[in-house]
């Protein structure tokens, strides 16, 4: 069943949205003094508060019906059973297998790809990665000139960059003080230049992270870094300063990295789901194996929760269904991710790939056209910075934007008073969005402040807030490895839930291919007729290059 709009629950939700009519979030709160308790869910001490959305218990029960009618139970069972849910590439999506062993329980989930248990491979590669990382961290594995390796430069892009970069920044307080990490992703030489300018070749380890080991940007940066290092320390030094993370052993060997210094993963791990694999090597170098295990354990516990919790208590299910409600019934085209945690500043960019590369699709799993909306535009940045940039539009713009606020109850900085300010600001924003400020309140406040009637009349429209703008708040007890793992896995499964309702495959990304081909053709100076715009712009570049 790939047309969700034909499902009875979809139809009912359409009618229900019309019936909900002008009911406001404020009225929903007024009608239910226990709304926070009734519209929030928990995963251990992580809380998902979805009460500030324009939904009633009828909305929720229809959304759960929609999940059942769209076959979420079966889809989830197929995912965890290692069925080829990525049907266009005939692959399972078993990122959960990378973390299954890490959760402390008698019976970890068991995963098999094409009938073959994957746990032995996962354990072996984890040990390989942990062993190497500890040698580097403890100074047993040294650079070619005998110095300790204390600077790690991860060269990768997309899933081979965004996940590790997110986690390394998010767990900043856990980083061994000696280690400095940089992430180079952009093919723009400015990116690598900037990092190499502060790099001491003798103390630096380059990780070439690429699932395919063919991604043009990564390979260009890898070759440039290798050339730079060989020029500084000699060709023989490359062996001590370059390692690879990939699924492609031949290409790694051809690049000149000994397969012993290659950390493997498998084609059943999608790029944007790969931080749990050897792609996390930079994370392990930064925070050590024990904390990396905590990260895996948080994600594994979220996997179990997604698999076993009833729909009504299931955080990924609730979050995914809310996205469908906002996108398909309320017509909200974008969604803001607002971490009130500076260390999570990369989360919006990370979720852009996770959500939009997964669910930015207009073809159903079986190749039919999609006639309903799929992924919203994901955007955002850390609070409170965003408040002084785009929150004006969130509060008074013409279109409501559903927001996810992500906060940590307990602080890890040295400035607890500032954490209190941060937390209060996050809550204030979601309350202002939901409840706004009426014209009457604004006028009363202005009168109390002694403003004169004409000024009040002129400014009231500008100073009032309609409110009624939806948001969801996730509170982690603390931003540590375990809860970060759980948070990321929560979003992974949320994306799967929405994809299941939309009838699309979230695990492929054919939409990135055409641009790669066209760029290659332009680079090769192909004679194929370019359109006049592309040809004209290319001529500008050629003229500038001639003047260089
Ligand atoms: O952007 C396309 C993509 O294939 C992503 O899905 C992937 O994460 C990224 O490129 C990098 O790919 P690789 O790890 O193979 O270099």
UniProtKB/TrEMBL annotation:
The protein's Enzyme Commission number: 5.3.1.9
Which residues does the entry assign to the active site, renumbered to this chain? 357, 388, 516
One GO location term (cellular component):
cytosol
Q: Which GO terms describe its molecular function?
A: carbohydrate derivative binding; glucose-6-phosphate isomerase activity; monosaccharide binding
Question: What compartments host this protein?
Answer: Cytoplasm
Question: What biological function has been recorded for the protein in this entry?
Answer: Catalyzes the reversible isomerization of glucose-6-phosphate to fructose-6-phosphate.
Instruction: Please report the name of this protein according to its UniProt entry.
Output: Glucose-6-phosphate isomerase
Species classification: Bacteria, Pseudomonadati, Pseudomonadota, Alphaproteobacteria, Rhodospirillales
Gene behind the chain: pgi
């Amino acid at each position: 069943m790939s047309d969700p709009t034909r499902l009875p629950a979809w139809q009912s939700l359409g009618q229900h949205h019309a019936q909900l009519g002008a009911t406001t979030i404020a009225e929903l709160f007024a009608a239910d003094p226990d709304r926070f308790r009734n519209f929030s869910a928990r995963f251990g001490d992580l809380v998902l508060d979805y009460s500030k959305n324009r939904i009633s218990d009828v909305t929720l029960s229809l959304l759960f019906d929609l999940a059942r009618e769209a076959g979420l139970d079966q889809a989830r069972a197929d995912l965890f059973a290692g069925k080829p849910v990525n049907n266009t590439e005939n692959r399972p999506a078993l990122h959960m297998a990378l973390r299954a062993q890490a959760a402390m329980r008698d019976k970890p989930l068991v995963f098999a790809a094409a009938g073959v248990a994957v746990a032995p491979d996962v354990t072996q590669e984890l040990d390989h990665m942990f062993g190497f990382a500890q040698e580097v961290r403890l100074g047993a594995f040294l650079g070619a000139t005998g110095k300790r390796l204390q600077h790690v430069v991860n060269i990768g892009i997309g899933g081979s960059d965004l996940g590790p970069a997110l986690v390394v920044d998010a767990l900043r307080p856990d980083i061994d003080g000696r280690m400095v990490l940089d992430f180079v992703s952009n093919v723009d030489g400015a990116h690598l230049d900037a990092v190499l300018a502060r790099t001491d070749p003798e103390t630096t380890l380059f990780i070439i992270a690429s699932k395919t080991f063919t991604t043009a940007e990564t390979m260009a940066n890898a070759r440039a870094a290798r050339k730079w290092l060989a020029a500084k320390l000699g060709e023989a030094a490359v062996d001590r300063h370059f390692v690879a993370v990939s699924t492609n052993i031949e290409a790694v060997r051809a690049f000149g990295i000994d397969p012993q210094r290659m950390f493997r993963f498998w084609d059943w791990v999608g790029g944007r789901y790969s931080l749990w694999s050897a792609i996390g090597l930079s994370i392990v170098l930064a925070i050590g194996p024990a904390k990396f295990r905590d990260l895996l354990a948080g994600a594994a516990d979220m996997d179990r929760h997604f698999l076993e919790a009833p729909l009504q208590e299931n955080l990924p299910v609730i979050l995914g269904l809310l996205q469908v409600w906002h996108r398909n019934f309320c017509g909200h085209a974008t969604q803001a991710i607002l971490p009130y945690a500076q260390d999570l500043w990369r989360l919006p960019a990370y979720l852009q790939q996770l959500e939009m590369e997964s669910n930015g699709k207009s073809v159903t799993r079986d190749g039919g056209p999609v006639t309903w909306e799929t992924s919203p535009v994901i955007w955002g940045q850390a609070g409170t910075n965003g408040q002084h940039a785009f929150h004006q539009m969130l509060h008074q713009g013409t279109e409501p934007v559903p927001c996810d606020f992500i906060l940590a109850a307990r602080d890890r900085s040295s400035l607890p008073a500032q954490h209190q300010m941060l937390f209060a600001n996050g809550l204030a924003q979601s309350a202002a969005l939901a409840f706004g400020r009426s014209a009457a309140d604004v006028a009363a406040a202005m009168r109390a402040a002694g403003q004169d009637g004409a000024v009040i009349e002129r400014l009231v429209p500008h100073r009032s807030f309609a409110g009624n703008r939806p948001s969801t708040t996730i509170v982690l007890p603390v931003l540590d490895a375990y809860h970060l793992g759980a948070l990321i896995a929560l979003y992974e499964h949320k994306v799967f839930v929405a994809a299941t309702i939309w009838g699309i495959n979230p695990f492929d990304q054919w939409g990135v291919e055409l641009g790669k081909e066209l760029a290659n053709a332009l680079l090769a100076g192909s004679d194929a007729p370019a359109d006049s715009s592309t040809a004209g712009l290319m001529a500008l570049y050629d003229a500038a290059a001639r003047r260089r």
